[in-house]
Design brief:
By secondary structure, the chain is of the alpha+beta class. It folds into two domains: 148 residues, no CATH class; 175 residues, no CATH class. The protein has 19 helices and nine strands. The N terminus is likely disordered.
Length: 410
């Protein structure tokens, strides 16, 4: 190579024409130059973010007769997508630094893939729209979101989802998957703004970046992070606290609390009354938080008679089938049913629950369930306040129940 370059220099200095190369020399020269051009280009982070190509950098000369060496490629996995196309996924681990904020573009260029906790709350459209307004008003995102390595989430017993698929310890490229623990509404707001960008003063599309950091402490509990970061801007309700409690106590047999979570469309109060057959039972967020730290409190809020739980589940399920989960999960239905069951001491709770289940089924078959939906859907007026709807529902249930019992006597 040096000899060729020196010859070229002499030609330029002396305006001479070099002697023709032999076939062997031409082959050696060609192979030498090819080996230089085949060196994989390395792009700087700035080039990656700007979408520029990397500059090819020659390496020291390699003898023409030296054996070819394989390039050191970044490990990749090919994954078939739903639409039939394939995607090349980097398997190279990505380690993020503490005390540093990363942009979305930077993380993507590093090979980071974004996942979510399956047990985190769903995206609230209203919250996203508020975030969009806030981001536009501030001229961009003004605070960072929190990421946690998927491996740590899995080690602590959390279920992680990536593009709708469950992530496991065997998922290829696990160590470049990071879970968005806090900031999912902000991230969704940025995505929507960029999907339909407005134009700035220069007439160019207004694009936004989201920003992320990892926890600033070495040891942390993901459940605690999830709970504490989600109580400031969009406070949790009792169901979110309950979900967090069940994640923290997977080894406990919490039959009542787990069953309570099986009825998400019902109010917590109504579902609790249905399942315990006790209209005096309450469950507040403060009780759930206390149960996270004190097993005695946990035992108290989960306490339930097994026969009553079985009977309550049956009656509740029949009511949901007849009226729909949302309507059946309100206190007019739950409290009327509970009072009907416990006010008949001569019949066991299980037998009364069976009777009510049959009654709700009869209401559905007779087409009477729509009557209750219309009562609930009435708009409140000064002459018909909202509270009167609950009374009307209870009165209608009582009248229909008498009719049902009358059919049994015939």
């Amino acid at each position: 190579m040096d000899q060729i370059q020196n010859t070229e220099a002499m030609v330029q200095d002396q305006n001479l024409t070099p002697a023709p190369q032999t076939g062997v020399e031409q082959k050696e020269t060609s192979e030498s130059m090819e080996s230089t051009e085949q060196i994989a280009p390395v792009a700087t982070l700035g080039q990656q973010l700007a979408g520029e190509e990397a500059t090819k950098v020659p390496t020291p000369e390699t003898p023409a007769d030296a054996p070819a060496t394989a390039e050191a490629d970044t490990p990749e996995s090919t994954e078939e997508k739903v639409d039939g196309t394939t995607e090349h996924i980097s398997l190279e681990p990505v380690t993020l630094e503490k005390h540093r904020i990363y942009s979305t573009s930077e993380l993507i260029s590093m090979g980071v893939r974004f996942a979510r906790l399956a047990d985190n709350r769903d995206i609230n459209d209203g919250a996203v729209k508020k975030k969009m307004v806030s981001i536009k008003a501030a001229g961009g995102v003004i605070s960072s979101s929190l990421l946690v390595p998927a491996r740590i989430c899995l080690e602590q017993g959390h279920k992680v989802e990536l593009n709708g698929e469950e992530v496991t310890m065997e998922t290829p490229g696990l160590d470049n998957i990071y879970v968005l623990v806090d900031g999912q509404h902000r991230d969704e707001a940025v995505r929507r703004l960029n999907n339909y960008p407005e134009k700035d003063a220069a007439g160019l599309p207004q694009k936004y970046e989201d920003y992320f950091n990892i926890p600033l402490v070495d040891k942390y509990n993901v459940s605690c992070l999830l709970r504490e970061t989600n109580t400031a801007t969009f406070p949790w309700k009792d169901r979110q606290y309950l979900s967090n409690l069940l994640m923290l106590k997977p080894e406990k047999k919490l039959e009542l609390l787990n069953e309570l979570q099986e009825h998400p469309q019902a109010t917590t109060k109504a579902a609790l009354h249905w399942l315990t057959l006790d209209t005096s039972r309450t469950l507040y967020s403060r009780n759930i938080v206390a149960a996270m730290l004190d097993d005695k409190v946990l035992t108290e809020i989960n306490d339930v008679d097994s026969d009553r739980l079985s009977a309550g589940k049956k009656a509740f399920s029949a009511a949901e089938d007849a009226f729909g989960a949302t309507l059946a999960g309100t206190t007019p239905f739950s409290d009327w049913a509970v009072e009907t069951i416990i006010n008949n001491p001569k019949v066991s709770a299980v037998d009364m629950a069976n009777t009510l289940a049959a009654f709700f089924k009869w209401l559905k078959e007779q087409g009477k369930a729509t009557t209750y939906m219309s009562i609930k859907g009435q708009k409140a007026t000064s002459a018909q306040p909202f509270i009167a709807k609950d009374t009307a529902i209870r009165q209608q249930l009582g009248a229909d129940y008498k009719d049902y019992l009358a059919t049994l006597e015939k």
